[in-house]
Design a protein that fits this description.
about 35% helix, three-stranded antiparallel sheet
């Protein structure tokens, strides 16, 4: 198996106010999440905690189907940036495997998260982005 991306499934946790420092591994497959925390102190330091986290993660990935293993080795796509807070580019996949690409505007309204989406297939990339930015600015007032 090719080498897994170094940070795949691993997050750094630093909470000085709680004296909580370490690495958190989380891998999800078919709705089942396996997770484990590796604290620096109990692992013998930051470097050893990361090593233990990677070993644990590699063991989990080795048990996954080949397609999921390959996904763990691929570089992530460069994220398109809108330059506007609350406007993001999204690519989602249906259970049938079809990809949908859209620009999404998100905001809070009376304590609830609201979103609206603009399809790249329906509007084109530039128009979908423009609509999302306008929707975000209108809703943000």
């Amino acid at each position: 198996m090719p080498e897994i991306r170094s940070n795949y499934g691993i997050s750094r946790i630093d909470q000085p106010e709680k004296k909580n420092h370490g690495y958190y591994v989380r891998i999800t497959h078919k709705g089942k999440t396996t997770q484990k925390y590796f604290p620096d102190k109990a692992s013998g330091g930051k470097t050893k905690a990361l090593k233990r986290a990677k070993e644990f993660r590699n063991g989990l990935v080795a048990k996954l189907p080949k397609a999921k293993q390959e996904a763990a080795t691929r570089k992530r796509r460069k994220v398109k940036k809108s330059g506007v807070v609350g406007v993001t580019h999204v690519i989602s996949k249906s259970p049938a495997g079809k990809s949908y690409e859209y620009w999404q505007a998100a905001w809070d309204e009376n304590g609830k998260r609201r979103t609206t989406k603009f399809s790249v297939a329906g509007h084109g990339n530039a128009k979908a982005l423009d609509l999302a930015i306008k929707a975000r600015k209108k809703a943000g007032k």
